[in-house]
Design a protein that fits this description.
Elements: H1 7-12, E1 29-35, E2 41-47, H2 49-52, E3 57-62, H3 63-66, H4 96-99, E4 111-112, E5 118-124, H5 127-134, E6 138-143, H6 150-153, E7 167-174, H7 179-184, E8 187-195, E9 207-213, E10 216-220, H8 226-237, E11 244-247, H9 263-275, E12 279-282, H10 285-291, E13 298-306, E14 312-322, H11 335-339, E15 349-357, H12 372-390, H13 394-401, E16 410-411, E17 417-418, H14 423-434, H15 436-447, E18 455-463, E19 474-481, E20 487-491, H16 500-512, E21 519-523, H17 540-567, E22 574-577, E23 580-583, E24 591-592, H18 593-600, E25 603-610, E26 617-627, E27 632-643, H19 650-669, E28 701-705, H20 723-740, H21 754-761, H22 774-777
Parallel strand pairs: 1-12, 10-11, 14-15, 20-21, 27-28
Antiparallel strand pairs: 1-5, 2-4, 2-6, 3-5, 7-15, 8-13, 9-10, 9-12, 13-14, 16-17, 18-26, 19-20, 19-25, 22-23, 23-24, 26-27
């Protein structure tokens, strides 16, 4: 019989998971939104009248209609008009100034600013009737010019908000580099890079079910931060938080895109409270492709200086970041790219500038890696360009400039303090695993054979930040021991596929020295755990895991104190061993924890625990074969070497590395959102228009790791979930660049579609050029 690797597997893989769409609530109405196909325009009129005549439709409203909606008795005193979407606070990444004057309406009132923005909502007795009603709503939008890239929008020729610049936020980090550095450097290289807009594309799209019960409201949602959702919905309703309970059932992935309050959430909660009836919204796939959050989306200009021996002198990165039509969610997110611009290298001078720019696209928000893939890509592309210019092997150039292990903790010119690292060890393991020298020999052979397809080897060394920003590096939780010996663990996190149900009980069981089958986890429920932050920023092990280990130690301390009282002994004379207590001296039989609880009453501890930021790192290598005639890229081998400190569950860490690597391959070769000139995404054919790598396209991926424990967390753990998205895209593009040697490396912009490859292949350097071996460089 198959043995489930994770506790979750038995339920999820046999179809017994319980998602929001599976929850049956009597009298529930389904919401369908009527959306603009126009990317930018003035809303002239909305007519919901015909929709209300459709059988099974319970109501249909525009923003103006909702102001006349009668309220049930419990909502009348506090909720009058449909509130706007709340400004999500992301610790030091937020800016109230950027949001001021740029309200994000839950339903369009006067101006459409991105394709898919909702102009009306229809409620039906079921989804089918609501869809029929939505088809009868008519509206008129007078088109305006649209801007869909940040560099174009930053010119302010088409302002999204009258009288206001599209540049919502300007910021910088590090110090400007003196012009003399660039003039006197042995070599200077530059590059311009477009970070393609991506869709997180989780298996389950966004969901919300709002169930009013007298003066209380229960919200079910596949959400990463239930306590934030409760706080923001309570603020919108003008209610105290204890009137709202948020529950996160089984959730089919998130990748960062399910941690905010969205316009649809505001409308669903508003209608549920005003009508006094349950209301549900289940986003379908085409809808998600149109209006779910986006990731990446930057125009970058980078410049790197080195001396004649390849020692880095200075690095400059200018970022125009696409934050979408409203600055409410991701306006400060590009600072993650700026702060991590230094990468793994001891570069004396680094300066990064950021402009967060509004465009006629859906909101850009954290997507797996969130700012760090963009930083790694620009720097690692420059590193390969520099290696070629100086005639140094790309691996050797990186090795010469690594921050050495004895320099940690290391404060970068951009203000990050790296906790620990051994970057050369990860690079060496990647080179050995991929067979670097053998592939270089094969590359040299092919370059003398006109009939051979070009082959390239690409490297990418990355450093990322995990855990969150200062002010968000803590978690809440507790442990309760019952008379039956069952240990209930409560945590403020919320799993969307990270294996919390397996890892957290195992961690607590190991700390207490008991069978992990005695431990059960309760999370994702504000009714069970009153405070919490959630699951984001690769913080599960580093922050939440550390909190639970801390709580387990508190259980041991409290148990020893109680046992000492029973036996009239000093606490130091009571020993804890494998879930039992015994006097140190008299040799009495151990007392099991359950017996202690029976004798002394319920044992429950609660606390808040904080860690520091951690900085995982690693090296990714890719070997690519390119067909210049067909414009295709075939990945022959991919190696990922990641260091996330101490691993709590190596098999699960490996799975996370594989999953994120597939998404990194997707960004490099396949994924991008195409727009027409009016700002409408060209996604009418679903996944035929937005390509994801399938099993057929995924190459052999070899996952390796090193272990450099983090001093920032008592577990020594660093984040492990985002590495492939962060490091692999640059390695793949560097491999293709190494194969083709285009005269202008900027021709290779992601995704590397056949058209991109075909054009780059026709602008190449002579194929006789040879990369020096590592031995020659040394």
């Amino acid at each position: 019989m198959y043995q489930w690797t994770r506790r979750e597997d038995a339920r999820l893989l046999t179809g017994n998971g319980r998602y929001v769409a599976d929850i049956e609530v009597p009298g529930c109405l389904d919401a369908v939104f009527v959306r603009s196909k126009v990317g930018h325009g003035v809303l002239r009129s909305v007519d919901c009248g015909p929709a209300r005549e459709v059988p099974g439709v319970a109501g249909a409203w525009s923003a103006d209609d909702l102001s006349d909606l009668p309220a049930c008795v419990h909502s009348a005193a506090t909720l009058q008009d449909l509130p706007p979407v709340p400004h999500t606070v992301l610790a030091k990444l937020s800016s109230d100034e950027a949001v001021a004057g740029r309200e994000w309406p839950a339903l369009v009132k006067d101006r459409v600013r991105y394709a898919g923005e909702a102009v009306a909502v229809v409620l039906g007795e079921d989804r089918y009737r609501a869809e029929d009603g939505a088809a009868e709503v008519t509206f008129q939008v007078d088109r305006l010019p649209a801007v869909i890239t940040p560099s174009a929008a930053a010119r302010d020729e088409t302002p999204l908000f009258d009288g206001m610049s599209n540049v919502a936020l300007r910021s910088e980090t590090g110090r400007p580099v003196d012009d003399a550095v660039w003039r006197e450097a042995g070599a200077v290289v530059s590059g311009s890079y477009r970070q393609n807009l991506l869709m997180p594309t989780p298996m389950e799209c966004r969901t919300i079910l709002a169930v009013p019960e007298e003066d209380r409201l229960t919200i079910w949602s596949g959400h990463q931060m239930p306590h934030r959702l409760r706080r923001e919905m309570a603020a919108l309703l003008g209610w105290p938080q204890d009137r709202i309970r948020v529950v996160v059932p089984d959730t089919g992935g998130a990748f960062g895109g399910k941690s905010a309050s969205f316009p649809e959430f505001v409308v669903v909660v508003f209608l549920a409270v005003r009508l006094g009836r349950p209301v549900r919204w289940i986003e379908d796939r085409l809808e998600s492709m149109l209006v779910a959050t986006r990731g990446r989306g930057q125009d970058q200009r980078a410049r790197l200086a080195a001396d004649a021996d390849g020692r880095l002198l200075a690095y400059e990165l200018d970022i125009d970041a696409d934050v979408g039509a409203y600055p409410h969610l991701g306006v400060g997110l590009p600072m993650q790219t700026a702060w991590m611009a230094t990468g793994a290298y001891r570069t004396p001078q680094v300066h990064a500038t950021v402009r967060s720019v509004l465009t006629n696209t859906m909101i850009t928000y954290p997507y797996r890696g969130a700012g760090r893939p963009e930083a790694v890509f620009a720097l690692e592309r420059c590193m390969d360009t520099m290696a070629r210019k100086l005639g140094i092997d790309p691996a050797e150039l990186r090795r010469r400039n690594f921050i050495p292990p004895d320099a940690f903790p290391y404060t970068t010119p951009t203000g990050r303090t790296y906790d620990s690292g051994d970057y050369a060890r990860a690079l060496d393991l990647a080179l050995e695993t991929v067979g670097y020298d053998a592939w270089r020999a094969e590359q040299a052979r092919r370059r003398t054979d006109p009939a051979a397809k070009p082959l390239g080897i690409g490297l990418s060394c990355y450093v990322e930040r995990s855990g969150g920003e200062p002010g968000g590096l803590h978690e809440f939780g507790g442990i309760e021991v019952g008379e039956d010996g069952i240990v209930t663990v409560r945590c403020g996190a919320a799993s969307s596929g990270q294996s919390h149900e397996t890892v957290f009980p195992a961690l607590v069981a190991k700390t207490l020295g008991i069978d992990e089958q005695r431990v059960r986890l309760v999370e994702g429920d504000t009714g069970e755990q009153p405070d919490g932050l959630g699951s984001f920023a690769s913080r599960s092990a580093q922050v939440a895991g550390a909190m639970l280990q801390h709580a387990a130690h508190l259980v041991v301390e409290e148990a020893r104190r109680r046992a000492a009282g029973l036996w009239d002994l000093p606490v130091p004379e009571v020993e804890w061993s494998d879930g039992a207590l015994c006097p140190v001296r008299d040799g009495s039989a151990p007392m099991d924890l359950s017996e202690l609880v029976k004798a002394t009453g319920p044992l429950r501890v609660e606390d808040r625990f904080e860690t520091g930021m951690a900085f995982p790192f690693g090296t990714h290598a890719a070997v690519a074969e390119v067909d210049p005639e067909l414009g295709t890229v075939r990945l022959l081998k991919v190696v990922t070497v990641d260091d996330c400190g101490v691993q709590l569950a190596p098999e699960i860490v490996r799975a996370q590395a594989l999953g994120s690597s597939v998404q990194g391959i997707g960004q490099a070769l396949y994924e991008a959102i195409p727009y027409d000139e009016g700002g409408t995404p060209l996604l009418g054919n679903g996944m035929l228009d937005y390509l994801l790598p399938t099993f057929t396209e995924v190459p052999p991926i070899e996952v390796k790791d090193t272990c450099t424990p983090s001093p920032a967390s008592p577990l020594g753990a660093k984040g492990a979930g985002e590495s492939g998205c962060i490091g692999l895209p640059a390695a793949i593009v560097n491999a293709v660049d190494d194969a083709l040697r285009p005269a202008d490396p900027d021709l290779l912009q992601m995704p590397l579609t056949p058209d991109v490859i075909w054009r780059a292949a026709r602008a190449t350097e002579p194929r006789t050029a040879r990369t020096p071996t590592r031995e020659e460089n040394r």
